[in-house]
Design a protein that fits this description.
Strand content of chain A: under 5%
Radius of gyration of chain A: 26 Å
Helix content of chain A: over 70%
Mean pLDDT of chain A: 84
Protein name (chain A): Sugar ABC transporter permease
Structural class of chain A: mainly alpha
Oligomer: heterodimer
Largest interface: A-B, 46 and 48 residues
Number of domains of chain A: 1
Membrane topology (chain A): Multi-pass membrane protein
Order of helices and strands of chain A: HHHHHHHHHHHHHH
Main location (chain A): membrane
Number of strands of chain A: 0
Low-confidence stretches of chain B: 1-31
Number of helices of chain B: 19
Structural class of chain B: alpha/beta
Low-confidence stretches of chain A: 1-10
CATH architecture of chain A: Orthogonal Bundle
Family (chain A): Belongs to the binding-protein-dependent transport system permease family.
Mean pLDDT of chain B: 85
Helix content of chain B: 40-55%
CATH class of the largest domain in chain B: Alpha Beta
Number of strands of chain B: 14
CATH superfamily of chain A: MetI-like
CATH class of chain A: Mainly Alpha
Distance between the termini of chain A: 25 Å
Number of helices of chain A: 14
CATH architecture of the largest domain in chain B: 3-Layer(aba) Sandwich
Subcellular location (chain A): Cell membrane
Number of domains of chain B: 2
């Protein structure tokens, strides 16, 4: 494609080789100039910060002192020898697993339920999708009120059934579920919509043929719908996985990582380290570790699911 | 060609990375004497970065207008930078970009951190030159903005923790809020109400969600959070008395401690619903209690034992050392104006924070202020007992260790004393690894 001009000039090697080289240079410069604006933006906002983080991660910079001292791998050493590091990883993975699984399962369930074009169903679909438009900050504020133990909606509701009020946000066992509730409430609409488009791209002939062969709805789902949805599922799995791993806003507003670190997911810990405790160097080391974890896990997901994903056509 | 592009990318990255390595210069030492001429009237504009909430803006605008009248050649541009954490982030970024405001707020707990990094101008030379009456300030409040014997700033919006009590209830029960630890048990037995073993009215509440509230309890009991050689004091028995008592009072159902997000709301609501007789809270929200309670609200200073202190909260006003030379003189004048005795009462009344000068208390304005807000009197009777918080750059991180121990006590009923002892080494490690 792009190599075409270079290939064209190749036969004239002996005589015009100098001219051809300079022309190739011009061509390559031209290519580069097209990519330059995008590269510049990526460079300034993605690659430079990334490399800078890598550099800071080897220093003891604390953001308030202008000097940075190179301390090698000490930040990394201290992180992996801190028990909190493993606790934070466990919390992040638990949260991610539950969030991804529940969002996808509920989203798929809703998609199957609402895969009918009737006015009422259209209305319901819109209703379920609505929370997706609401900013995470506002949603978190609303849920903060819902889960409040004194005047929250949920405790009022369970009070009707004679249950004692629960301290949802201040109990280490329930706090993570309050975060999951916001995330799932906000996320299922989008998941449902993507699943719906996936469902509608499955050719109807498969269902007709299988029902002639006597398959019931459940078998159809298991052997036709679910396998043929797999590209959609993979897409949702990866995007949801990455966004769940990066959970921050809801924690910042609803729990501050507490109580007793029970909701301290990795990004919140990075924030706390950098901006509350001013350990910018160590926070950067954590950023790099987190970056590697996400890259590796995303690659693993793609490789593992490659064989199991059926692409139509 | 692919190869070439990759190479270019690497080169670009290398250049950028190199830029970052060389881009960081060293901080310069503060000069011995102020450079500027105090009588220079060349027009100058300075920025004032602040975290003043909406409710304080009326007061701030008034002060800036008055300042303009006194110094027509100086223009102050106030810039709201969000809450304290946001302000701190932006300050750090401004320092990195070498484009700092001349004057800024700083939250009192991070003074050590920023001062240690050389970001703040040492104001001592200015204070000496203009012979500022330092004796007139509350000693502890000034100390909170000094670090390593240098005065980096002045107290601006000052709060401290106080005991807010239900005066109507206590009068009815015929009890006084405890002034010493010895009086607490007697107070507890009179105020606590139980039904079938469960407390329906707590005698008092100490917030567990922020160490600011119980640090003074540690020192009032004869202990220390931070010793002089920058280690924690939890290996000494006096430094554990607060925890022993808190545990005892929680177990006998007279003390309510909240922990985690929303615990503050809960405590506030329980007090207003008369489920708690007395709560320790910030003096900055006394007005809120007075306005929302259906009963009379009284304020008492923290009860003392070996000593009787409470800690300063809120923010101060400082000059950035990286400000341009021509701005520094103007910045100093502004700082002096904002914290002077002249406008102290007006400022306190507008913002709901505490006056900082001794002389204003007996002034005509001061008398009116105390007539309007008799609740603040308790603080002024203990004016010099409002002290600085433990000052160490790693304090925020170290304190989260014993805050979580308090959390374990509140949420899981654990005994904090052995945990404090066991974690002494961990806290010392945080302090030394700075």
């Amino acid at each position: 494609m792009k190599q075409a001009p270079a290939a064209r000039t190749k036969p004239k090697v002996s005589m015009a080789s100098k001219a051809s080289i300079s022309r190739r240079r011009i061509e390559s410069l031209k290519d580069f100039s097209f990519a330059a604006p995008a590269l510049l933006i990526l460079g300034v906002f993605i690659y430079y910060p990334l490399l800078f983080s890598l550099y800071i991660s080897f220093t003891n910079w604390n953001m308030t002192r202008p000097m940075k001292k190179f301390i090698g791998f000490e930040n990394y050493d201290r992180l992996v020898s801190d028990p909190l590091f493993y606790k934070v990883l466990r919390i992040t993975f638990t949260y991610t697993a539950l969030d991804v699984f529940l969002t996808l399962a509920i989203g798929l369930g809703l998609a199957l339920l609402f895969n009918v074009s009737k006015r009422f169903y259209n209305f319901m679909r819109t209703g379920i999708f609505m929370p997706y438009y609401i900013s995470m900050v506002i949603a978190s504020m609303v849920f903060l009120w819902i889960f409040n133990n004194q005047y929250g909606l949920l405790n009022k509701f369970i009070g009707v059934f004679g249950m004692d009020p629960v301290n949802w946000l201040q109990n280490p066992n329930t706090a993570i579920w309050t975060l999951l509730a916001v995330s799932i409430w906000k996320g299922v609409g989008f998941t449902m919509l993507i699943f719906l488009s996936g469902l509608r791209s499955i050719p109807l002939e498969y269902f007709e043929a299988s029902s002639l062969d006597g398959a019931n709805k459940f078998w159809q789902f298991l052997h036709i719908t679910f396998p043929l949805l797999s590209p959609t599922t993979l897409f949702l799995l990866i995007t949801n996985f990455i966004s769940s791993m990066q959970v921050f806003q809801s924690i910042d507003i609803m729990t501050n990582g507490g109580p007793l670190d029970s909701t301290k997911a990795i990004v919140y810990w990075i924030y706390e380290m950098a901006f509350v405790n001013f350990r910018t160097g160590r926070a950067s080391a954590l950023v790099i570790i987190f970056f590697l974890i996400i890259i590796v896990l995303t690659a693993v997901q793609m490789i593992l699911t490659k064989k199991k994903v059926h692409y139509e056509g | 060609m692919m190869f070439k592009k990759k190479w270019l990318g690497t080169a670009l990255a290398a250049v950028l990375a190199f830029g970052t390595v060389t881009g960081c210069g060293g901080g310069d030492e503060a000069a011995e004497m102020p450079q500027g001429d105090p009588n220079d009237t060349t027009p100058v504009t300075i920025q004032y970065w602040h975290s003043h909430a909406e409710t304080q803006m009326g007061g701030l605008n008034y002060m800036i207008d008055e300042f303009k009248k006194a110094y027509p050649h100086i223009t102050v541009e106030p810039v709201f930078q969000g809450g304290y954490p946001d302000l701190q982030k932006k300050l750090s970024a401004a320092v990195a970009a070498n484009d700092v405001p001349a004057v800024t707020n700083v939250e009192v707990s991070v003074v050590a951190n920023f001062a240690d990094g050389g970001l703040f101008q040492d104001l001592t030379p200015y204070i000496k030159r203009d012979k500022v009456d330092m004796e007139d300030f509350s000693k502890g409040m000034l100390q909170a903005y000094a670090y390593n014997d240098k005065q980096y700033g002045f107290p601006l919006i000052v709060s401290t923790s106080v005991m807010v009590y239900n005066k109507t209830l206590l009068d009815k029960l015929g009890v006084q809020p405890p002034q010493t630890w010895d009086e607490i048990e007697d107070y507890n037995s009179k105020v606590t109400e139980k039904e079938g073993g469960k407390t329906t009215r707590y005698a008092f509440s100490v917030p567990g969600w922020d160490t600011w509230y119980y640090d003074p309890w540690i020192s009032n009991g004869g202990g220390t959070v931070l010793t002089d050689d920058d280690t924690v004091g939890f290996d000494q028995p006096e430094s554990l008395r607060w925890a022993e008592n808190f545990k005892k009072w929680i177990d006998d159902g007279s003390l309510m401690m909240g922990f985690g997000k929303g615990a503050s709301d809960t405590m506030r609501q329980m007090f207003l619903d008369e489920k708690i007789g007395m709560v320790e809270h910030s003096s900055a929200i006394i007005k809120m209690y007075v306005e929302n309670a259906k009963f009379d609200v009284g304020v008492s200073f923290l009860p003392g034992d070996k000593e009787r202190k409470s800690h300063i909260g809120g923010a101060g006003i400082v000059m950035m050392s990286g400000a341009k030379e021509e701005q520094k003189e103007a910045a100093w004048k502004f700082i002096q104006f904002m914290t002077s005795a002249e406008h102290n009462i007006k400022w306190a009344d507008e913002t709901g924070y505490l006056p900082t000068h001794k002389s204003v208390i007996d002034s005509e304005e001061g008398k009116q202020y105390f007539e309007k807000w008799p609740q603040y009197k308790a603080v002024f009777d203990n004016f010099d007992n409002v002290g600085p918080r433990p000052q160490h750059p790693a304090y925020p991180e170290m304190s989260s260790v014993y805050k979580d121990i308090v959390g374990e006590m509140i949420l899981n009923g654990k005994d904090p004393v052995p945990m404090l002892k066991e974690n002494t080494q961990k806290m010392n490690d945080v302090l030394s690894d700075y």
